[in-house]
What we know:
- This protein is mainly alpha-helical.
- Helices cover 80% and strands 0% of the residues.
- The protein contains three helices and no strands.
- The longest helix has 47 residues, at 18-64.
- The chain is rod-shaped and about 100 Å long.
Amino acid sequence: MTSPSAAEVSKLADLESREVLLAKLAGAMKANLSKAAATFQAPLTQAVRLVAALQAKREEDHSNTPAAEAAPSTD
């Protein structure tokens, strides 16, 4: 095995500590997981908003309908 050159030793000396590198790696992994969770949650959120909007529209339509028209006559 050959001994490291001065340039290689300088590169090693400039590296951040193990703890800092692990923290950066963990942060990057957490960010990717957060993006994935948001991506998977978006369609569910949109579906819930759609259902709520449809329900509000349905309630609005029913409140605008007069009671005489809403109930069928029994003549």
